[in-house]
Design a protein that fits this description.
single chain; 164 residues; alpha/beta; TIM Barrel; 5 helices; 5 strands
Length: 164
């Protein structure tokens, strides 16, 4: 029985490449160490549409080292205003891997995030139809909830509803 495995080229399932000057450094590091990376969309301004994701992807690839086979997997930032049709465009692009849920105000550059999960139920339904993964920043933003309890409260209040 085999007792070990060797991971030749791991994937990074959560990378912040940022933009502008930082991009040259972050892309080089990601390309050196990984085969693929899921690129977080919480830039300033955020990556809200398929067109923006594809434009960001081009900026990323223009910084990829020559002879590198590393691939950025693009993600769209969900907001209260994201339309179900955007999910169809994302899937059709073949370049957008998933959509990221940030609660408004929960983390870096999340001011444009979702204020109420119920507002994006039509989008989540379209994601399910299209087979587009939902990537969660799962925490509540209630200031009355201890910072160390925000993830477990999110699970109890929201995640259970999403998976049912």
């Amino acid at each position: 029985m085999q007792k070990e495995i060797t991971i030749i080229r791991p994937d990074d399932w959560h990378v912040h490449l940022r933009d502008s000057e930082a991009l040259a450094f972050t892309v080089k590091d990601a390309a050196r160490n990984f085969g693929r990376s899921i690129v977080m969309p919480n830039l300033d301004p955020p990556v809200l549409t398929t067109a923006q994701a594809l434009s960001y992807r081009e900026r990323i690839l223009s910084n990829r080292p020559k002879n590198s086979h590393w691939q950025p997997l693009m993600v769209i930032y969900l907001t209260d205003k994201t339309a179900p049709e955007e999910i169809t465009k994302a899937k059709a692009s073949g370049k957008v891997f998933g959509c990221k849920y940030y609660p408004a105000g929960a983390t870096t550059n999340s001011a444009s995030g979702v204020t109420d999960l119920k507002k994006i139920f039509p989008v989540l339904s379209q994601m399910e139809k299209e087979g587009v993964p939902l990537l969660l920043h799962g925490e509540v933003t209630d200031q009355n909830v201890d910072i160390f309890d925000r993830e477990s409260i999110f699970i109890d209040l929201h995640l259970k509803e999403l998976v049912s």
